[in-house]
Each structure stands twice: as structure tokens, then as C-alpha cells.
Amino acid sequence: MEITVNITRSDYWKYNKYALFNIPKLRNRFIITNISLPFIVIILLLLFKLPLVFSLCWGVFGGGLACIFSYLSMKKRVMSIPESKEGILGERRVEINEIGIHQLSSVSQSSYKWSGVRSINQNDEYIYIFVDTIMAYIIPKRSFVTEKESLEFYHQTQIYFSKCTP
User: Fold this and answer.
1) What pLDDT shows up at residue 85?
2) Quick one: how far is CA 70 from the chain centroid?
3) Are residues 68 and 102 in the same domain?
4) Rounded distance between C-alpha atoms, residue 110 and residue 133, angstroms
5) Which residues form the YcxB-like C-terminal domain (predicted)?
């Protein structure tokens, strides 16, 4: 089964957002950082002998701003990737068969056997075939002519993958 996909900045951002909130390692790091930051600010302000209420307010406010800033800076970094950044963005052909998944673009090609695939996930817009903790093939569902085709593709990946996992 073969499909041609075109990965845009928006697709890459949505993948990064999906990874941040759905991959336990990344999600936990994000949560711990964003929870600990207000406490660090509060402790620092208290060390400077500032009033407790002032320290609490600025700790929560400053921590909240830091959370928003880190999220927005991540988005800015992803969205600033040039459209000409082939290899990450652009058109590619993705093929799945009983051996594995193969991707071919104008600048690269890659292949993974199903035994090298870690997981296959989907949401409303994408199918993600993870080959590492945070590295995945991004398959936009808009690349399929019909929703039925995207479901068939997803189910076929599940069949191939399940044959290789114990």
C-alpha cells in the first residue's frame, strides 16, 4: 500500500504538540518543569525576605507566564523551519508492506522493518508510526482520497505490526 504525503510546517507543529502531550517521557518532563518553576520563583522571592503573599502571587503568575513562554517558543521554533527544509517538510512517498515501512523523498529515503517499529497511533488528523521514542512517520489523513482509505491504511499497519510483535 502506497501513499504520497506532503508534510507542512503546520503538520510538523501538530506532531510536536502531539508528542509533547502524548509521549510519557516528554509529557512528564513538561509537567515537572511547569509545576516546579512556580515553586522555585516562590522560594527565591522568600529568600529575598519578600512578603509571603507577594511571593505566592508572583510565583504563580511568573510560573504561568514561563509555561506560556516555553510553549510559544517551541511553536515559534517549529514554525520557523523554512518550507524548503526537505527531509523534514515536503512531499514524500510512503509505502507499507509485509516487510516494513519505506519512505522516499527528493533528498532521502528510509526504511524500517515492522520489528523496528515501536507503536502506531492515530488521532482525527494523522497516523503516526513511531520508530523511536520521539521519531515518527507522519501520515496526514488528508493525503487519502476518502476516510475509508485512511482507515484501511491504519488497519493494514496494525496487521503488519502485530505479526512482528510477540
Assistant:
1) 64
2) 16
3) no
4) 17
5) 97-154
Helices (H), 23-108: 24-47, 52-79
* The last residue of a domain, from among 79, 100, 132: 79
Residue 84 clears pLDDT 90, i.e. is over it: no
The verdict on 42 and 88 lying in the same domain is no
Q: Which domain holds residue 55?
A: 12-79
Residue owning grid cell 497516523: 127
Q: To which H or E segment does residue 121 belong?
A: strand 119-122
Q: Please, which residues have CB within 8 angstroms of residue 18's CB and are 6 or more apart in sequence?
A: 123, 126, 128
Please, what is the angle between helix 24-47 and helix 52-79, to 10°? 140
What's the whole-number mean pLDDT along residues 58-75? 86
> Bridge-partner residues for 138, per DSSP?
128
Helix axes 24-47, 9-22, angle to 10 degrees: 70
Q: Give the largest Cα separation in the chain, rounded.
A: 66
Domain count, the chain: 2
Question: Which residue do the cell numbers 518532563 mark?
Answer: 29
Q: What is residue 83's DSSP assignment?
A: T
pLDDT number for residue 146:
95
